[in-house]
């Protein structure tokens, strides 16, 4: 939380009260876990739909810009093409850069 908190502070109000960063993250996680509609979350938590949308967008932007680069190493275009060619040569499946082994 300490890594994203400074980037989530600021606007995000409902009924005249600003959401603190922790509330924004909890709302985001709750939304992901329940996969519910904005309106359901709005009624359940007495938070405006616009506030929910803004909180979700803020979390997505912050996670993408500050956490993804740190924890997920995406290949360069050249690396992706190499992996794609290698996977196609060994498996016969074209245009795949990575696959997880196991059950699906």
Provide key terms for this protein.
single chain, two-stranded antiparallel sheet, elongated, mainly alpha
Shape: elongated
Query: What is the number of helices?
Result: 5
Strand order of the largest sheet: 1-2
Q: Segments where pLDDT lies below 50 for 5+ residues?
A: none
How many structural domains in the coordinates? 2
**Helix-and-strand structural type:** mainly alpha
Largest β-sheet summary: 2 strands, antiparallel
Helix content: 55-70%
H/E series, N to C? HEEHHHH
Percent range for β-strand residues: under 5%
Q: How many strand units?
A: 2
Give the termini distance in whole angstroms: 32 Å
Average pLDDT confidence is 82
**What's the gyration radius in Å?**
19 Å
Model description:
This protein has 104 residues and is mainly alpha-helical. It has 2 domains: 5-72; 74-104, no CATH class. The chain is built from 5 helices and 2 strands, in the order H-E-E-H-H-H-H. The chain has helices at residues 5-8, 21-34, 38-45, 49-71, 77-91; strands spanning 13-14, 17-18. A hairpin with a 2-residue loop joins strand 1 and strand 2. It is elongated, with a radius of gyration of 19 Å. The relative contact order is 0.12.
Annotate the secondary structure layout.
Layout: H1 5-8, E1 13-14, E2 17-18, H2 21-34, H3 38-45, H4 49-71, H5 77-91
Antiparallel strand pairs: 1-2
Helix pairs in contact: 2-4
Give a quick precis of the structure.
The protein has five helices and two strands; from the N terminus they run H-E-E-H-H-H-H. The chain has 104 residues and is mostly helical. The protein folds into two domains: 68 residues; 31 residues, no CATH class.
